[in-house]
From TrEMBL:
This is Pimeloyl-ACP methyl ester carboxylesterase. Pfam families: Abhydrolase_1 (PF00561). Residues 26-240 form the AB hydrolase-1 domain. One of its GO terms (molecular function) is catalytic activity. It comes from Marinobacter segnicrescens. InterPro entries: AB_hydrolase_1 (IPR000073), AB_hydrolase_fold (IPR029058), Carboxylesterase_BioH (IPR050228), Epox_hydrolase-like (IPR000639).
Amino acid sequence: MMLHLSCYCMVAVRHTMPGPSTALRLAEAGYLAIALDARGHGDSQWAADGDYSGDALVADLTCVCASLHSPPALVGASMGGLTSLLAIGEGPPDFARALVLVDIATRLEPEGVARVLDFMSAHTHGFASLEETADAVAAYNPHRKVRGTAGLRKNLRQRDDGRWYWHWDPRFLDHATRSSAGESLVQQERREQAAQGVHIPTLLVRGGSSDVVSAEGARELQKLIPHAELFDVQDAGHMVAGDRNDVFSNAVIDFLRRKLPAVSERATLLTL
């Protein structure tokens, strides 16, 4: 089922989790998983005004959560994690029931952030083939054990010129800054202030080989959210769920079973 929200909530909601294994595992565990395509990503519309700021992403998430029957648990990776952190830390206390951050924290390593942005910026001209895309991904992410073009079609669009382009709007990069603090989309000071406002069960799933969130960065997050749990996924980089999907799924389901049991009601997970 695809639900396209109108007005400024230009986001598409899919009743699946990224990765069939995780989706199946969550369903078997009794959870309803809804994957949110952020504005300018996936099947969502591109913003006519090019606004991909943190505030715009939080406003979209707030709109989607308001349409649900009860506050969800948020599972946010990278940009989705930043959006979730701001929405919960700066929003009302009942905004969400639990938070899972996937390789994102208040302290980001500038070298890792720069590498992500360099990879995104380097391929705005598209790829001649899916095979060329796979080679570029393999060079960027040597931790990924599964190679080839399987799954790439859902992340790219083939245009009239025959080239393959990432599905996200390149204007997103206009909001991704670089600095010695690894600012990325949201400034570190704001991330830290938001983290201090998070009082719901929280889990940080970190790629053990991530160059975006270091072990020190994970510990700093725990100082700001003392009740947060930390879980390192070995042999995984920034794209944790793609690198080690089974380990990632196990960690999330174990956390949810302890903090948000699905036996009494069909709890909703909103993944970003």
